């Protein structure tokens, strides 16, 4: 047998062994990851309905469920309307409402728009502000007014990926509900949404 034939046998032996190792170890792992990645995990509501009413968040009437709290919502809305009428002697002023969309990083656009609106000098005081996803993050600052523009800018210009999430290991695909941990985002929000921030709108005059 020639040296060439020996080298070929050795080469094919190494490749064969490599394929067997791949098939025995790596291939099942890849299959598991694909199955887990393509599957979906049923998620419960952020606060399970069974215990929602037992949780005290120290803000009266801060949580409503449209399918069970319709009468309470209507009663509170009517009471707010009557208070506003009484405060303005029956002549309600123009009320400005703002809805902010979501969009992840694109929330910086909304923050910049609000800050620019303030600088132009004709940004109104909003009677109601609501938002979705990143819009919900900027909505409180928009509601509190132009005085909080600096904090709003800080959220969107001094924030990196490390302030939003931490990466988890590969086993998180099986052991956790996501490949990242958003504790940093929770901590960042907690650093802004403190007791003083919540008490400002509670003490503000009723406009709607």
Features:
single chain; 208 residues; mainly alpha; two-stranded antiparallel ribbon; 4 strands; 55% helix
The total count of strands amounts to: 4
Residue runs with pLDDT of under 50 for 5 or more positions: none
Helix content: 55-70%
Main beta-sheet annotation: 2 strands, parallel
The gross shape turns out to be flat
Give the overall pLDDT as a whole number.
Answer: 76
Terminus-to-terminus distance: 95 Å
Discrete helix count: 9
Pairing-aware structural class of the strands and helices? mainly alpha
Give the topology string: H per helix, E per strand. Answer: HHHEHEHHEHEHH
Radius of gyration: 28 Å
Instruction: Report strand %.
Output: 5-15%
Strands in their spatial order, largest beta sheet: 1-2
Helices and strands in order, then pairings?
Elements: H1 3-38, H2 49-52, H3 70-87, E1 96-100, H4 107-120, E2 126-131, H5 134-144, H6 149-157, E3 166-167, H7 172-175, E4 180-181, H8 183-192, H9 195-203
Parallel strand pairs: 1-2
Antiparallel strand pairs: 3-4
Characterization of this structure:
With 208 residues, the chain is mainly alpha-helical. Helices cover 55% and strands 7% of the residues. The protein has nine helices and four strands. The strands form two sheets. It has a two-stranded parallel sheet. It is flat and about 65 Å long.
């Amino acid at each position: 047998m020639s040296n060439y034939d020996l080298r070929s046998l050795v080469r094919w032996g190494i490749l064969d062994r490599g394929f067997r190792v791949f098939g025995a170890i790596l291939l099942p792992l890849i299959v598991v990851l694909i199955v887990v990645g393509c599957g979906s995990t049923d998620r419960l509501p952020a606060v399970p309905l069974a215990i929602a009413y037992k949780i005290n968040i120290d803000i009266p009437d801060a949580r409503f469920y449209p399918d069970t709290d319709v009468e309470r919502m209507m009663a509170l809305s009517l009471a707010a309307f009557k208070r506003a009428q009484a405060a303005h002697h029956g002549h309600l002023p123009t009320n400005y409402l703002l809805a902010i969309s979501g969009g992840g990083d694109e929330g910086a656009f909304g923050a910049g728009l609000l800050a620019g609106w303030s600088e132009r000098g004709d940004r109104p005081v909003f009677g109601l502000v609501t938002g979705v996803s990143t819009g919900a993050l900027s909505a409180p600052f928009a509601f509190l007014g132009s005085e909080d523009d600096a904090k709003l800018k800080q959220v969107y210009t001094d924030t990196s990926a490390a302030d939003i999430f931490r990466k988890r290991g590969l086993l998180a695909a099986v052991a956790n509900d996501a490949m990242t941990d958003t504790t940093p985002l929770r901590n960042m929000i907690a650093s802004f949404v403190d007791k003083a921030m919540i008490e400002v709108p509670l003490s503000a005059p009723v406009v709607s």
